[in-house]
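User: Now give one protein:

AI:
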Amino acid sequence: MNLGLTFQTITVLVCAGGLVAEERRDAHSFNELGVTYFKQARYEDARQAYERALQLDPDAAPTLANLATLYRTLGRNDEAEPLYKRALAIDERAFGAESSEVAGLQGSLAQLYAEEGRPRDAEKLLRTALAARERILGQTDPAVALVLNNLAEVYRTEGKLELAQAENLRALRVFEQALGPDDPRVATGLNNLASIYEARRRYDDAELLFRRALDINLKALGPAHPDVAVEWNNLGGVAQHRGDLRGAAELYRKALAIWRESLGPDHSRVGYAWFNLAVSYAALHDYAQAGPLFEQARGILEKHPGDYRALASCLESHARVLRKTGKKKEASRLEARARQFRELHPGEETARRYSVDVHDLVGTP
């Protein structure tokens, strides 16, 4: 498939959409343009389109929700949460507390809670959203599968792997039947099921599904999209589990390059990529390379509150490298910080390291 031609076509369509939005000067057109830009990972263009829409209609709940999802994707959760809550209040007044619109916003807010290390709050919201969507839409609608997928991710991060696998398989079947085998949402389901298999040490099954997801996303999204980087990162994890540390490092570098370019150098996923790369070099006993990489990872992860377990793991791993190189005093300092995080936040785990979001982007009526 000629990806150059594909993206040239998309660019022409987006330019045309921009002209339509400028000519009509209505909030709906700018919101739809923002959604198109978001799907292409053109995040600054999407932000500007959403902002233009909100200038024309400040109380447009779909646009508020889409801007919140953009901020959450960029790791700016402190800006995303109030936008979700504002959109939720507007839709509750307009459609009622048990509407499909409200359920969609509850699901998005739940993902934010999961990222901030609040799995119980996330699970509660997702269960409420799932009940509403199943009642309104039935059990075979992709919007229901979206909630199931994200509920499965919460279960996975809580270590409830049987529940996670059951919900993920259910979501994947709906995505495949409703959308066809080549839709990016199918890739999301495959990726997240593979993450469960990886957690259960079924590495052959995990690699197979990660590669299927990679093939779908390369064709649908292009090689520079951040969801493609997720697959490279996750394949690196499988290679590392198998002991192919140099192969893992190469895959982590692919993910790192894409995330730095598409999400910015301080995004949490960039921090995870530095951490994964550092771990692979530490396992190779290349401490000269591992140490600075751990420092890069720590500097980013410390900017993202909520993911305390990932930060604690990074501190502990870096401390081991420091001890190997005779820097015991600095190692002890990092170990003490890690213990503090684990005591304050027991049992919390990142929902971001090996997962892909399904974004509930909202069109305006």
In short: The radius of gyration is 21 Å. Confidence is low (pLDDT under 50) at residues 1-20, 348-365. The chain has 17 helices and no strands.
